[in-house]
Fold:
Amino acid sequence: MNAAEQQAAAQPQTMQRYYRWHARIYDVTRWAFLFGRRRLLRLLPQKPALRLAEIGCGTGFNLKRLARQHADWQLTGVDVSRHMLDRAFRALKPYSQRVFLLEKSYGKGQFRLKESTDIVLFSYSLTMFNPGFEGAIEQAYDDLRPGGCIAVVDFHDTPFGWFRRWMGLNHVRMEGQLLPVLERHFEPKTCEVRRAFGGLWRYLVFVGVKPRSSVDG
Ligand SMILES: C[S@@+](CC[C@H](N)C(=O)[O-])C[C@H]1O[C@@H](n2cnc3c(N)ncnc32)[C@H](O)[C@@H]1O
Structure:
């Protein structure tokens, strides 16, 4: 195994270690800077009986809101951290009949969602797939039905090196790396890059459609 492969293989354990402690303070700290999550939920297709999977669902912030809003949607949350999922499980208890939680690492070829997934959601998770974000986007492409949507909200970039390094210490890569890969695979319906905290960083809100005419779809 070369160094890059070793890093890729270690990513799930890195996340499990990081969130063993951070899961406890996640909900009381992250609301202050994970901008755009509610906006992304409003941008999702509002049709009946959709199947949605959130990858890196964490403590269930998005799934809880979706379960409340869409009584007939089938929701799946995937996360590699048992400590985050424990919290999601508690938050989603009232909806346990129609929200399924899976403790798994997501990535190219690791496992498949149900083939007819209509929406794959990534909310502040893809910038933590280091390495592996391209593989996760490719897997989402494979898991979506043609015409299905990928929905992403995440950090985009920062002009400040010290801030980029600080976020790196927290396993977040913010070098504008997600957008080109998303645009390569999906037809953009919404693509916004917005300033946060007066320009300390920018974040991305992206909704894209898997082309119906894709050769492999
Ligand atoms: C910053 S949290 C975001 C949680 C939630 N989506 C939200 O918006 O609050 C990132 C989550 O991605 C998960 N994650 C990171 N790498 C993963 C992987 N390879 N497979 C599945 N989940 C992963 C982490 O365990 C963590 O719960």
Summary: Residues 11-12, 15, 19, 34, 37, 55-58, 61-62, 78-81, 84, 105-107, 123-125, 128-129 surround S-adenosylmethionine (CB under 6 Å). The beta strands are 51-55, 74-79, 99-103, 117-123, 144-157, 187-196, 201-209.
